[in-house]
């Protein structure tokens, strides 16, 4: 399939992602939270745990992973619950849940966009578009990185790929936008695990760890074409590497507020010690005056 530099409706080339957004939200009562977006296709995820779990749900060998997905509007329906199960199968290989047996790790994802195309509105039978699924996967990983309470063996990065058919054939496009969904005749989400524990290949970059495909739901209205799937995977892997780089760069922004907070704490401690020393000096002066 072609991935030529064809300009799309928003001015992007076929292999170009929309602007990536990664924000660590610092939500209350959770251990980590993050917002991730491809352009306006955004989602928010929080992580709590490891925390206590009811005895009837605990596992003696590993932490129990519970994922809940909430649509933009209405209550979670069948599609939301199915997506939660999918995200659990995607994230489990990246987590070292055996380090915290008999506990609970809870991830709650919230769609921050939604249209009639089924992208997070919660409408039964409409599904969730591939770009929003990818956003939820990446937001979950960013929230886990923010929490630092659940050990990870690697980073999962996800992107969407769509197929636009034309009279001359078909063009694969990376990260299709909402306006492009109606023109797609195929597409899906691809999730990759990046980990230094994976075997490397001669084509792997030295500054990016090896990756392997964890999951995809790529489908097409035409009969199965192995070459189409292979080309879509290649394009998706290129986009996933860009997501990995963005997540890596975001860690520095996440640590900056923490360092500032530590500096403020250190300054406060020094002030307390200084005040204590001043108090001791005054007390010694009082004793001398009494003598």
TrEMBL record:
Keywords: Exosome, Nucleus, rRNA processing. InterPro entries: ExoRNase_PH_dom1, ExoRNase_PH_dom2_sf, PNPase/RNase_PH_dom_sf, Ribosomal_Su5_D2-typ_SF, RNase_PH. Its main location: nucleus. GO terms for molecular function: RNA binding. Residues 16-147 form the Exoribonuclease phosphorolytic domain. The keyword Nucleus applies. Pfam families: RNase_PH. Residues 281-291 have a biased composition (Acidic residues). Gene3D superfamilies: GHMP Kinase, N-terminal domain (3.30.230.70). Residues 255-291 are annotated as: Disordered. Residues 260-280 have a biased composition (Basic and acidic residues). SUPFAM superfamilies: Ribonuclease PH domain 2-like, Ribosomal protein S5 domain 2-like. One of its GO terms (cellular component) is nuclear exosome (RNase complex). One of its GO terms (biological process) is nuclear mRNA surveillance. The keyword Chloroplast does not apply. It is found in: Nucleus. It comes from the Eukaryota. Belongs to the RNase PH family. This is Exosome complex component Rrp41. It comes from Grifola frondosa. The lineage of its organism: Eukaryota, Fungi, Dikarya, Basidiomycota, Agaricomycotina.
